[in-house]
Specification:
Layout: E1 2-8, H1 20-23, H2 28-42, E2 44-50, H3 54-63, E3 70-74, H4 83-92, E4 96-100, E5 122-125, H5 130-148
Helix pairs in contact: 2-5, 3-4
Bound molecules: 1,3,4-trihydroxy-5-OXO-cyclohexanecarboxylic acid.
Subunit structure: Homododecamer.
Enzyme class: lyase
Catalytic activity: 3-dehydroquinate = 3-dehydroshikimate + H2O
């Protein structure tokens, strides 16, 4: 059984209410429930955590060492600002997949740059709540491949 940490950054607690034209009407609880369900089929125990605070997300990444084999992260706006989150991901070297509900490259230029992209396995952006599901699947396949071809 794999243990996967799903991290949600700032303002994602407001999903469902927040700019539904961009982010849709699905709530964070619904996304987390779906990921836990998907985890059963993928043989992965999914643990979600949301914070609006950069340092708490950094702490969660540090505490993931020896507990989680992989991380799925939607860092929200910190994607575009946080060297600290990028350094935390690089420091723990836990395979991480970056996800975004919206396609960040279709939006304002300040969202086109991700500080996380160079230190993650890959990025999935633009599929709404499906981005998280695809991200979890991609992470689990990556971890399985790594286990068979270390
Ligand atoms: C987001 C995209 C970010 O630019 C934005 O700040 C968010 C959500 C997304 O999931 O589409 O908070 O990460």
């Amino acid at each position: 059984m794999l243990n996967v940490l799903v991290l949600h950054g700032p303002n994602l607690n407001l999903l469902g209410l927040r700019e539904p034209g961009i982010y849709g009407s699905t709530t964070l609880d619904q996304i987390n429930q779906q990921l836990k369900e998907d985890g059963k089929t993928l043989q992965a125990e999914v643990t979600p955590f949301q914070s609006n605070h950069e340092g708490e997300l950094v702490d969660a990444i540090h505490q993931a060492v020896d507990r989680y084999q992989g991380i799925v992260i939607n860092a929200g706006a910190y994607t575009h600002t946080s060297v600290a989150l990028r350094d935390a991901i690089a420091a723990v070297s836990i395979p991480t997949v970056e996800v975004h509900l919206s396609n960040i490259y279709h939006r304002e230029p300040f969202r086109h740059h991700s500080y996380l992209a160079p230190v993650v396995v890959g990025q999935i952006s633009g599929f709404g709540p499906e981005s998280y599901r695809l991200g979890l699947q991609a992470l689990v396949s990556h971890l399985q491949l790594k286990a068979t071809n270390p």
